[in-house]
Write a structure and sequence with these properties.
6 strands; 2 domains; alpha/beta; Aminopeptidase; Serine Threonine Protein Phosphatase 5, Tetratricopeptide repeat; elongated
Length: 379
Amino acid sequence: MDWMTRRKFLTAGGLGLGAALLVPGVLLAGESAFDLALEGQDLLAAKEYARAIEVLHKAVSLDVGNEWAWGLLGRAAYQSGDMRGALTSFRKVLGLNPDDVYSRMMVDVIQQKPLPPREKHETPLTPLEQAAKKEEELFHARISEEKGMGYQVRRLVLDPGHGGFDSGAVGLGKLQEKDVTLDLAKRTAGILERQKAPFELFMTRTDDYYIPLSARTTTANQYNADLFVSFHINANANRQPNGLDTYFCSEKASSKEALRVAEFENSVIKFDKKELVQKGYVNIEDMLFRYERRRYWEAGGKIAGIVQKNMAARVSMKNRGVHSANFYVLRRAKMPSILLETGFISNPEQEALLTQDAYRENLAVSIAASLSQLAGGGV
């Protein structure tokens, strides 16, 4: 289906991009910035980057305030190897929407390497290019004063796993995972608040009730979070395994054990309501997410390493390291996300530790210290 046909089938849910609603079956006269951006998106998906850049430049010249078109242009420039053009476009998005997590991350990624020298122009710069050049110079002046601009965590969503009828894992002493995760998340939030950590803090649940896996991620997306942290307690039919793990999302599990953990945590997905998607309709934001999630998952891996290192240094449990798997609760997060497995409730000794206030407090302090570290300079 070509782009002109597909635009007649966009859902209202896919138009959270500042565009006007298109009535199915009705084409607009002439080219608009939205039409061109949609065409550019399809060219980007087809990996025709040079054509996508050409079309998207036309889109932003028609509507300089269209952050969606600028974001697409940044993606196309990045994929084509034009780091300077990508940086300019992503900065333009941030000028229009400072809360755009992906653009902030990409600015940080691109700035980690020196930019190639600027090419000499055979013809004078266009007004749009002149404005972009001036904006880039001002930006460089500002970040030199601020001594750099890393990807910083500003909005943080803490997700206590399970809840309500979903107890999670249960130990021999009848300790329930849902109760420990809620307490740990609340303690972590309390520590960060008392330390006046520079976060906007949110929690997916604050009491003993069930939240579907999809709703947890949706909450983080709606808050434009920079980091999503899901709290869990591990379990195994074998009572011997023990220790701390931190996970991030990946298409394939890093080990059989990681796959086992993901399958257990994903098992409650059967309680989620299936989304009704009308045949022939396209969700633009879902298409864009394909280009973004690899970056989120890479950053999640780095964050997982930081948190795991701090927990292992402060808590008297075996360091089981960092792993990855396809966790449903992380997969749809539009920001870096991690999942903590803070001990084995199936191990009698660790179940006993997890009942102790002092132990839980020490664990929460280690998690809070890791998160505070991310506020200062990012990943």
